[in-house]
Amino acid sequence: MRGLNHTFFLLLLTFILSANAFGQTQDSYDYQSEFTWGINKNTSGGLIGGFVFKKARKLNDRVLETYGLEIMNVKHPQEVRRNSLITGNFFIFGKNNYLYAFRFQYGRDLIIYKKAPHQGVEIKAVFAAGPSLGLVAPYYVEYSPDNGFFTFRDQYSLGIPPDQIWGTGRLFEGLGESKVALGGNVKAALNFETGAIKSSVVGFEVGFLLDAYTRPIELMPAAKKYAAYPTLFITLFYGSRK
Asked: Which residues pair with 47 in a beta bridge?
């Protein structure tokens, strides 16, 4: 958790400094719509949790209507990377499935604090909810049961000893064998827009999200299966407005 906090801090610092370095002031921040995309870091994902896209339009001076899509790789809480004893390559011991979450969201952004024309931060309260579509794809490993004369790639199972594993399978291997899990998600966050160019949006969003499915998802056969995945997140975003 300490490493995650350090990562969040460094990402925030880098992003805010970049925004201030490239920002230019304008006389007005009036706008009717905006589109943003961002990179997400969360407590249920890896170094990069996934990507976020959002379209917003103003309903009035303080409220925006939003449509969003999040594409995330969701991890089991007990996942740990290990090095192969044979090759030194990384693999996730005990993992047999990926969970790729496609979260569709509809919501409202409430402007709490408006940015001054030439400086400052615009703060919004963010609320969104919608359906989730989970793709449960097999996690492949490469292993050798005969001390290296032949290797095989297959979905991990408890029958494959860890000392026979060479590493993970090929990129996106098994994606065509995915199974669908249906669910829903709800999000609450604070959005901080730090850019100073009228036609651009730059900033970060921090908050809480709950992703829940109609059945428990098996990600590690020897560990507990979860149907709900609560997470804390930060998203660094950029976009345009008009």
From this structure: none
Tokens of 38: 């961002």
Question: What is the pTM (predicted TM-score) of this model?
Answer: 0.83
Nearest to 169 by CA among 145, 150, 143: 143
- Tell me the domain boundaries of the chain: 34-187+207-241
C-alpha span between 182 and 213 (Å, rounded) = 6
| Confidence tier at 96 by pLDDT (50, 70, 90) | very high
* Structure confidence by residue, pLDDT tens digits, 23-37: 434 444 577 899 999
Q: How far is the C-alpha of 240 from the C-alpha of 108, rounded, in Å?
A: 18
Q: Kindly write down the DSSP assignment for every residue of 188-215, as one continuous string.
A: EEEEEE----TTEEEEEEEEEEEEEEEE
With a CB cutoff of 8 Å and minimum separation 6, the contacts of 67 are: 54, 55, 56, 105, 106
- Whole-Å CA distances, 178 to 56, 133, 175: 32, 12, 5
- What is the overall mean pLDDT for the chain? 87
